[in-house]
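Annex B. Sample input.
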Amino acid sequence: MFKGHASRGVISLFPTSSNVAPPHLHTKHLSALNAHWCFFIFPVCSIIIRRNIIPKEVHRIIIREYMKLGQRIASIELFAQPGSAEPAYQPVLLWDENGATLVDTGNIGQMDQITKAVQEIGLQLSDIRRIIVTHQDIDHIGNLAALTAAYPDIEVWAHADDIPYITGEKRMIKMTDERLSQMPEAARTALHSFFNLLPSIRINREIKDGEMFELHGGMRVIHTPGHTPGHICLYLPQEKLLLAADELRVVDGELVGPAEAFTPDMNEAVRSLHKLADLPLEKVFCYHGGLYDHEPSARIAELIRILEQA
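Annex B, continued. Sample output.
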């Protein structure tokens, strides 16, 4: 029985290989962000791997065999640091007669990893017809502008409550002045370059709570605000599979709730869990941590009790 895995080890915001840096982001800026965000986003990290102390041959993109989640459903495992044992981010690719659907796009600078992973599955980026964005966070939209620039026919779908942040109309809710002020100057420069790309993103479809997409035998939108205002999960009844995005995580093999430090409205996020409690589930797939398939419905009910008593 496989209960999942938690991302662990050295974490950085961007891969440091210059050939995957997004437009306008200099490698030295990416290195600064790596060093800063290793501690800012993942406090458990105790080691920083910097480019100048790693041999060049170690700076490569590491792609593991993709994880099959269902019939023509696979995770794309993206690594934040060369040599990491576990993926830090896990978008999902689904494909059927309506073309391929990518759910989230990884962190900034991971286009090369995404390209290789999609090819390993047997598809090309040009097969992607639509990208469903689960929410506004950088590690979910990091390659959205690059993908839509390279393939203009790709549609972008997102919940209305997060669209202004995805397109740069509003500043991302977690990118506060206080947070930005804690970053090195090079990190702030890199992020501002990324923010400048956001207005190029065009949203083709505003998705709504309860909407059922005619994709992959049916895909239901579940609006789960709290982690961000427009956060969504996706439920595939045919597979009894929940794509939980950041509403749930797998940590040390156990299903847990959203990361409180990065969930501005934790009370709302806990209320959102009630929308997941009655789903017929066999599998939950989390963007951070991967697959959980050990009686997930019972575990979600338990989580609600624990979190509401906290």
